[in-house]
Amino acid sequence: MTWTSIPPRGCETMKHVLAAALLAAVAPAWAAHEGPASLDAALAQGKREHKPVLVDFQAVWCYSCYFMASHVLNGKEWDDLSKKVVFYEADADKPADQAYMKKWTVHFLPTYVAIGPDGEELGRILAERPRDTFYPEINGILSGDAKLSKLKADAAKGSMAAVADVLDTYNARYAGTEGMAWFDTLPPMVRNVSDKDKRVAFAKQRLLLLQAKDKKDDAGIRDASTKLLAGDIGCDRPYVLDDLLGASESLAADARKTLLAPQKASYDQFVTTQVFTDSPACADQRSSVLSGADLDAAIGDTAGEQAILRKGVESSRSRLHGDLKSDRNAADNLRVYLVRAKAGDELDTLEKQLIAAYPDDYVYNYRYGRRLVESGKAAEGLPYLETAAKKAYGANRFSVATYRVKALRALHRDDDAKKLVAQTVAADGKAFPEQTKKLQDTLKS
Hints:
GO terms for molecular function: protein-disulfide reductase activity. One of its GO terms (biological process) is cell redox homeostasis. The protein is mainly α. It is about 65% helix and about 5% strand. It has 24 helices and four strands.
């Protein structure tokens, strides 16, 4: 996603499950940055050295993280940035780092949170960015210009730029209700002229969308997302469209088609001009492709649905030049496009190639084994899941164990399934109570 505050698909629905709900193996295979041993240690070092701490929340299953690691977090700009900050890679599957995700309301991966030496958040960036966008943004945050307390003071004095920055901050924190509550505290003379500023008006509309999502108010989501989509929202378009798609599922088929059909022309133009170009303005190709395919499916354009998926397939293969190791983001995008297109034979071949290309990760053995189990091939899928289990840790152990249990039960090995659940819970159950309950429930279904 391009975050200016609508959630990245980098990590959420079948697309989101594919991108985000699968869990990781060892520390991310792409992680090349050494740093403090824990986030607590990083914050202590930042305070001691009077440096800001830049926290990169990521995981091995996060395709957007692959993009950033391969295309952005390297080179001279990265070297220069690294000298200014204490850098910490937070693993979304580790309990200690998960605790900070909850504390700082980090909902999506990757998220980059900058914390000042005094412990106050300086700002954050959500989802992947092109290199020429990321570094100006992060350098602006680190300059101190985005410090929330200063921005709020400037906003109260009438600075529309500061009002927009504060609203964007609440958007980035996914705090729609809190953001609008802050806006209501501004002096009337500021509030009354705010809608004349396009950036402020847009930021308020995004907060209204978040509020509606918090309330699970489908009508409110449809209203807010439709208004946003009527404007020039750049790389946020796939995420807002996805909200509209989700909130329209309860409508009658004809009513839904009438609501969604007007989005087709603007979305096709967006994909053509900002995604499938030699120099894409929007880094998150996967979200753009999947939202486009979902729009086509919803309005009954089967040919359009397949066309955008095949375009994604062709684009990914072109970027890879036959080498799956050359660009993991493109390799994983290719996998997801083939899943979405139900291209079974191509997908079987690719998934085995991904397992060979990334042997140190649990994730591709898990995904392939899971797909085999889901398609009724438990005996074939179980060995892949057992291989994945040897590499899994933390939260992802439960995902792997869940499908191992399903495979074992399908093979009428109920005693082995019960033993596996007991072993997994004994090892990690206290740290992951929600995952523990879900795993135990697999013995009941």
